[in-house]
Amino acid sequence: MKIGIRLEDKSKSERRVPFIPSDLKELQKQGVDLVVQSSPQRAFTDDEYRKYGIAVAPDLSKCDIIFGIKEISKDAFEPDRIYIFFPHVIKGQPHNMPMLRRMTELGNTLIDYERIADDKKRRLIFFGRHAGLAGMINTLWALGRRLDSEGISTPFNRLAQAMTYHDLDQAKEVLAEIAENIRTDGIPDIIHPIVVGFAGYGNVSKGAQEIFDLLPFKEIKPEELADMSAVSNKILYKVIFKKEHCVKPKDPSQPFDDEEYSRYGSEKYESNFEQYLQYLTVLVNGIYWDSRYPRLLTIETCKELWADGKSPKLKVIGDISCDIDGAIQCTVKANDSEH
Asked: Would residue 339 count as lying in a domain?
């Protein structure tokens, strides 16, 4: 049985790998037959794999098991193979159903990283923290670009997209410079205070906050948002929204109950989040969502916020969870980093 590591071709910026060269070397020592598909954009070059004695080939047609990262084009599958990757199909995502249908037609077996769990159904393979790290860098980059377009110069215009940095340390160096600039010169009055709201408190949110916390900030509670008159312009403001802030029982006489909400979702609960949007400069979405639950931000609310040339305080939505037509309903398409 031969195992192959496929190239990532969903976007030109996708450089991740399921196995680094030293990992494959260890597997090879255990007698595993391996081959890596040649790639011009992978974080580790073909030669780096060859240095570890790993075979590199132009295709994986002779492999029985194929590992990848992102979704695979429906035209790229070989019949009767085992594919292991992130297919993003467990919620029935419509845009990936043609891919899943093609795999079924070819008699393939799909092993979804998202469904590899322990005996308590806790996921064992996830990129949540890393998605949060990269997503927050890109969100702050977008904030700088958005404010620049409005003629507002801020330190965030020094930041580049996450994919352009060699590693996390290089990005952190730039963030340290931005932090010092904020401490010294402050935030322009026209955009002050900058309030960044985080929806969720799982791995994605924790990764995003890890980046944000490199900047000077003060954490406040959602209940404090309405009164921010006496605040410093030399720090940012951070607020974390938990489930009880995002939704409320349809029956006003009942308190929020986490177990009940998880069980019944929209049947017994409705969104309570719109009241906070007017106070946020940036919204970072890192929650798990499916159609059983209320949305954070609907298309109708988007129209109310931005229609007729309105310019609300909310400048950027960093939808790191990126559920199409999901919690952030205006996320209608997942663009690659080149767009």
From this structure: no
**Residue 198: phi, psi to the nearest 5?**
-115, 120
Same domain membership, residue 138 and residue 228: yes
State the DSSP string of 146-181. Answer: HHHHTT---GGGG---GGGSSSHHHHHHHHHHHHHH
- Characterize 176-213 residue by residue with b for buried, 16 or more Cβ atoms within 10 angstroms of its Cβ, and e for exposed: eebbebbeeeebeeebbbbbbbbbbeebbbbbbbebbe
Look at strands 282-285 and 195-199 and give their pairing: parallel
Q: What is the pLDDT of residues 281-327, one digit of tens each?
A: 999 999 988 899 999 999 999 999 998 888 899 999 999 998 889 99
199 and 247 co-located in one domain = yes
Q: Are 67 and 96 in contact (CB under 8 A)?
A: no
Structural domain span for residue 306:
128-319
DSSP letter for each residue of 193-239: SPEEEEE--SHHHHHHHHHHTTS-EEEE-GGGTT--SS--TTSEEEE
Among 63, 39, 60, 61, residue whose Cα is nearest residue 49: 39
- Residues 186, 232: Cα–Cα separation, whole Å: 8
Residue-wise pLDDT for 49-94, tens only, equals: 999 999 999 999 999 999 999 999 999 999 999 999 999 998 888 8
Shared domain for 270 and 158, answered yes or no, is yes
In this structure, the answer to whether residues 110 and 245 fall within a common structural domain is: no
CATH assignment of the domain containing 88? 3.40.50.720
Q: What is the CATH number of the domain that holds 245?
A: 3.40.50
Residues 139 and 248 in one domain: yes
